[in-house]
């Protein structure tokens, strides 16, 4: 009788462990999906910001170019056109950021760094551990928990 009781307890324990493993896996998958959706939303906001910024800077660039060109023709000073060159580079960068391939080139470069320069990604003092977080928490709170007594 004791054997059959321990056998059913073992079976229930195994089922419970499998259930807990399934639940933790499901929770992890949900966390990964949520973090990915948040990343996608942040990236979309950055691209939208670049596009909106481009509209304002493009308008400024057009007005400045017209004004500088008119001033250079009227005063017969071609040196007044000089600011158009750096402003043109800024406009080109913003266009590339908003509608071009800048994002894809940055992604490719990030993948190259992760593949071939892994040591550059190391955090100072390594990755945080439970012990280091608890030590910082205890130092900040100044309270001794009941577990430490």
TrEMBL record:
Keywords: Receptor
GO cellular component, one term: plasma membrane
Entry protein name: Plasminogen receptor (KT)
Example GO biological process: positive regulation of plasminogen activation
Superkingdom in the source lineage: Eukaryota
Annotated InterPro entries: Plg-R(KT)
């Amino acid at each position: 009788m004791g054997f059959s009781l321990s056998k059913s307890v073992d079976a229930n324990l195994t089922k419970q462990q499998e259930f807990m493993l399934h639940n933790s896996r499901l929770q992890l998958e949900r966390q990964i999906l949520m973090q990915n959706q948040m990343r996608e939303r942040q990236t979309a906001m950055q691209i939208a910001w670049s596009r909106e910024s481009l509209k304002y800077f493009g308008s400024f660039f057009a007005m400045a170019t017209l004004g500088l060109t008119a001033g250079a023709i009227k005063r017969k000073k071609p040196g007044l056109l000089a600011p158009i060159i750096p402003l043109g580079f800024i406009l080109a960068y913003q266009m590339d950021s908003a509608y071009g391939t800048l994002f894809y080139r940055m992604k490719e470069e990030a993948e190259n760094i992760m593949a071939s320069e892994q040591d550059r990604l190391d955090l100072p003092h390594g990755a945080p551990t439970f012990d280091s977080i608890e030590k910082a928490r205890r130092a900040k709170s100044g309270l001794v928990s009941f577990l430490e007594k």
